[in-house]
């Protein structure tokens, strides 16, 4: 860290941020089963109080899972808040966990899909949707080989500094979301796997409206373009927080077939279908509090106007 960065980050206005970082780091040394219980209690309590996040989750669940009864969606929303709280109080594990601890806590399902692709010399994009536990898979895999991750810089420079330092501590290469894609393509072509979170609001980036749970969702076209330029395969990869604090399970699925093509909408639809399959497997761990359908076709009113 440079002297100028120290001067900025040490300013008194950031002391509350550093206090929050210190609390997360202290929590991270606790046993995971204890954090699991603590998070469950906090999440259950938070889920009972009206909030913007709860309203957003209710809107998303109604849009995506209309086949569920209102009571079932409420139970799923409460389970989601418990999982999110468990992931939050356990952030210290991913942010500062030692190499040996992560190796002990993380297990893989169908890891052979990834290993076989790497052994065959293929360029790999790991498609990592927004589940409660976002970073564990990328961190764990970066212990074995350099990995590339794309991130969106937090507005708070303290959190930005902590996140970048954490995610790169095992050899990961961080690329800001708004950066030029050419450096990323070069790294992919050099054989570095890319850990990518695709299901986010596109902002000013290129997108098409592709179905997600039958609802038109603004879906980035960048994954298709990156896969084509780097001649990469796309492997769905998501992490499940195991019950009772037993650790984390990184789940991998076979590469998305017939991807990429010259059909941007078809490619985006295949990506969303892969994410939807993952969500249906562990729906309580998906980030339902995220405004996935904020951008709508034809500038239609937001579903979240009251959220």
Question: Layout of SSEs?
Answer:
Elements: H1 3-9, H2 15-27, H3 32-47, H4 52-64, H5 70-89, H6 91-96, H7 99-105, E1 106-109, H8 112-119, E2 123-127, H9 136-142, E3 148-151, H10 157-167, E4 173-176, H11 182-189, E5 194-196, E6 207-212, E7 215-220, H12 222-230, E8 232-241, E9 248-252, H13 264-281
Parallel strand pairs: 1-9, 2-5, 2-8, 3-4, 3-5
Antiparallel strand pairs: 6-7, 8-9
How does this structure look, described?
- The structure is a single chain.
- The protein has 307 residues and is α/β, with parallel strands linked by helices.
- It has one domain.
- It has 13 helices and nine strands.
- The chain has helices at 3-9, 15-27, 32-47, 52-64, 70-89, 91-96, 99-105, 112-119, 136-142, 157-167, 182-189, 222-230, 264-281; strands at residues 106-109, 123-127, 148-151, 173-176, 194-196, 207-212, 215-220, 232-241, 248-252.
- A seven-stranded mixed beta sheet has the order 1-9-8-2-5-3-4, sandwiched between helices. Strands 6-7 form a two-stranded antiparallel ribbon.
- β6 (207-212) and β7 (215-220) form a beta hairpin.
- α4 crosses α5.
- The longest helix has 20 residues, at 70-89.
- The radius of gyration is 19 Å and the shape is globular.
- The relative contact order is 0.16.
- The mean pLDDT is 92.
| Order of secondary-structure elements | HHHHHHHEHEHEHEHEEEHEEH
Question: Regions with pLDDT < 50 over 5+ consecutive residues?
Answer: none
Structural class of the helices, strands and pairings? alpha/beta
Taking the sheet with the most strands, its summary is: 7 strands, mixed
Helix coverage percent:
40-55%
């Amino acid at each position: 860290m440079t002297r100028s960065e120290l001067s900025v980050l040490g300013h008194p206005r950031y002391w509350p941020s550093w206090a929050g970082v210190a609390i997360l780091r202290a929590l991270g040394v606790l046993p995971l089963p204890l954090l699991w219980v603590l998070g469950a209690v906090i999440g259950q309590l938070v889920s009972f109080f009206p909030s913007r996040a709860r309203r957003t989750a209710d809107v998303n669940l109604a849009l995506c899972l209309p086949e569920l009864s209102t009571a079932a969606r409420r139970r799923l929303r409460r389970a989601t808040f418990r999982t999110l709280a468990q992931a939050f109080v356990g952030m210290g594990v991913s942010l500062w966990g030692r190499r040996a601890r992560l190796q002990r806590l993380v297990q893989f399902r169908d890891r052979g899909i990834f290993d076989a692709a790497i052994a065959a010399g293929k360029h790999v994009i790991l498609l990592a949707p927004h589940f409660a536990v976002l970073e564990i898979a990328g961190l764990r895999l970066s212990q074995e080989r350099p990995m590339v991750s794309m991130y969106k810089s937090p507005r708070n420079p303290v959190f930005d500094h902590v996140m970048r330092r954490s995610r790169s501590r095992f050899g990961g290469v961080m690329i800001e979301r708004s950066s030029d894609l050419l450096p990323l393509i070069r790294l992919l072509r050099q054989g570095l796997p890319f850990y990518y979170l695709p299901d986010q609001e596109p902002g000013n980036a290129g997108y098409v409206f592709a179905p997600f749970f039958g609802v038109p969702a603004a879906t980035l076209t960048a994954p298709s373009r990156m896969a084509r330029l780097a001649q990469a395969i796309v492997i769905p990869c998501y992490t499940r927080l195991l019950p009772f604090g037993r650790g984390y399970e990184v789940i991998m699925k076979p590469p998305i077939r017939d991807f990429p093509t010259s059909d941007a909408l078809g490619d985006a639809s295949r990506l969303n279908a892969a994410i939807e399959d993952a969500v249906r497997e562990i729906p309580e761990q998906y980030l339902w509090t995220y405004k996935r359908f904020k951008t709508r076709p034809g500038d239609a009113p937001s579903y979240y106007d009251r959220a």
